[in-house]
Fold:
Amino acid sequence: MKLIIATIKPFKLEEVREALTGIGVRGMMVTEIKGFGSQSGHTEIYRGAEYAVNFVPKIKLEIVVSAAMTDQVVETITKTAQTGKIGDGKIFVLDVAQAVRVRTGETNEDAL
Structure:
């Protein structure tokens, strides 16, 4: 099993969710986050005053899938979330040692 952590632009969330559902992903965790990468924030003007926005709003997706689905999920997120502009996000893939469905006690891939 693999844990896929992806950061994407907020307006891409619904499109990515629909694409992942279309390939068989049955669940994900979504968190609103703030961060910065290459773009290092930016400046905005609000009521005539310029100020620095050091942290940019992002969405973090956490998805656990079978190892066999990993490449397809990563490719789907990449294609769907891409705008071609700086700040499109990142994807990380980690190994998952164990999963347990609390309601039934099912473990590992049966718990997914």
